[in-house]
Structure formats: C-alpha cells, structure tokens
Design brief:
alpha+beta; 8 strands; 164 residues; 52% strand; 8-stranded antiparallel beta sheet; disordered N terminus
C-alpha cells in the first residue's frame, strides 16, 4: 500500500509542477518549435523547447545551431520580448548560416489558468493550455559541412494544447 501511495504522490507532483509556471519563464527568451504555418492550424498540440545552456568546445555554436541539430527540422523561433511583444522567425539553414523570415505580434500568459496566448500575423494566433513540462539533458554528436560537432545542452520542453 505504501508503494502505491508514493507512485500516486509522485504523479501528482509532476502534474502540479507543470501547472505552476510563471510568466517569467517566457519573458525575454527564445523558444523553438518544428511546426510550420500550414500545419499549425491542423495541430491540437504544439511542443516548444528552450535551450538553457550549451557545453561545447566550438565557440561558434549558437542556440540556433543547437536547436537545429537537436530537432533536425525546419524551425520557428518564438521570441517572447518585453512588453508582451512577440517575434516569430522561420529559420532557413544555408551554407553560410541562418536566414530569418519574421512575423510580429503579441503574447500573454495567464498564470492562474496556465494559458499562453499568441496574437501574430501568420502562424500563431490562438490560445494554448500548458499540459506538460520537462527538463532534459541532451548529448549530441553530429557533422555539419566537414566539421564534427559535439555538444551537451539542457532543454526545457513544454507541450501546449490548443483551446477550442
């Protein structure tokens, strides 16, 4: 009986932890997602992730490269800026680096109900409830052009469910 209680308590703590996020988690940060403007309207859930730190010997390895090597997808960067300004960038990886296509809007986070709202031209224009959050450490070894790239990073991942 004691084992069952501990399992239930652990599950409850995990769920409640993901439901107690503060607005500061988003303010002046960059989050990444692999969705594009065509698919976002069809998805009920969206996963976003934030790079918390990067450990590497390669000084040129920015959070944009880390996000790309981690996800292996065409990415959007969601920049939560001051005064609830929002910038959404589509990343295009070329031989010389990244090119960005930008759109702008506003964001808001309702801490009490754990609802993140985007109002932007194009891709994001909806409200989402945070349904899960996790931290993880990722070690990646990959190649880019002729370079071997090795790094470790801490990621924070959030799963958002669209509100109907």
């Amino acid at each position: 009986m004691k084992g069952i209680f501990i399992l239930i308590l652990f599950s409850y703590l995990s769920i409640s932890y993901s439901q107690n996020l503060k607005k500061e988690i988003f303010e002046e940060t960059n989050w990444f997602t692999g969705i594009d403007s065509i698919n976002v309207a069809k998805k009920d859930t969206i996963t976003i992730f934030k790079i918390k730190n990067i450990e590497t010997k390669n000084e040129r390895l920015t959070e944009y490269y880390v996000a790309y090597f981690y996800s292996k997808l065409n990415l959007r960067v969601i920049k939560f800026q001051k005064e609830n300004d929002l910038q959404v960038q589509k990343l295009h990886l070329l031989q010389c680096g990244f090119i960005f296509d930008d759109s702008y809007g506003k964001w808001n986070f309702d801490e009490k109900n754990q609802i993140l709202t985007f109002n932007s031209e194009g891709m994001l224009n909806s409200s989402y409830r945070i349904i899960a959050r996790k931290d993880e450490r990722v070690n990646i070894e990959t190649e880019f052009k002729t370079d071997k790239i090795i790094f470790a990073t801490d990621l924070e991942t959030i799963i958002l469910m669209r509100l109907k």
